[in-house]
User: What shape does this take?
Amino acid sequence: MNLVYEEGGDIKIASVQSASGSGDSESWQATSLSGKKIKLKAKEVWVRFENPEAQAVMEEAQRLSKEIDLQLLWDCAPEEEFSLLEIALEYFGARATIPQQVALAIALQGAPIFFRRKGRGHFQRAPQEQLQAGLAAVERDRKSTRLNSSHGYISYA
Assistant: This one.
């Protein structure tokens, strides 16, 4: 079995070596894709899957995450808190694949302007006013960086 989890703001996958407990007290000894030995508890796991292979899932998810339309995702997200699985079904449909679910996890984690993290695998879309302010700030930064780089230097302030 493979487990999708978050560590340091990044979405990761680990392969289970052994399991103990059951239900909410279930835990696993696992190996991350980087080879690190870890222990995960049920409350830390976002998605569990057997197939496809973990490395293939992560590679496909990273590719897919770049194609996700964050504005469309925000538009189809409910105003109240939602889980990764709920938004995957809304965005990709009833047959959301494991790579698609992991891609959404990556996209949601990487889009704090659009979505607030409300706990492991749970999010809430940002209010319209905050979204507009955040997007305007990004656009100002982009224009400022482009303008400064055209003069031979880049400002990161």
